[in-house]
Amino acid sequence: MTGAAPAFHSGLYPGTFDPITNGHTDIIARAARIVDRLVVGVAANIGKGPLFPLAERVELVEHECEIIARRTGSSIEVRPFNALLIAFAREVGASVIVRGLRAVSDFDYEFQMAGMNYRLDPGVETMFLMASERHQFISSRFVKEIANLGGDISTFVPPLTLERTLARVRA
Prior knowledge:
By secondary structure, this protein is an alpha/beta fold. The chain has one domain: Rossmann fold (3-Layer(aba) Sandwich). The protein contains 6 helices and 5 strands. It has a 5-stranded parallel sheet, sandwiched between helices. Helix 1 (22-32) crosses helix 2. The longest helix is centred in the middle third of the chain and has 19 residues, at 54-72. 33% of the residues are buried.
């Protein structure tokens, strides 16, 4: 890495990643430049009725993170979790939780979540990264809906995720 040393040693970027999108990979790549070590936490989140089982979501996220790590020289680790976010942050030694924001509508929820996490552990900060302009409208929920209705999702997800998503919705 070049430039100033990262302010945070370890960061955690949590999400369901069902499926991982190009917006997610953009945030991962940018967050990996800010911290020495980034843990991408894949939440079990069974309540959301995921398209992909947890193990496959972890596999898809690992695939994309390996590409990013090779390209950037960053240290990125992928881990599944099914616990309170702040407890998982402590478990992986994260001093910062990274959250991506697409629009003002995301901010209200994320602001509340950051406040609750701070109350639970003031030693873990929350950092918000704005989605890049070309990714601001992408969400996993929209990707699944478009795919289920036969639309083209090729510009919203990485190639392996595209292949796996299409196989799932066509099954």
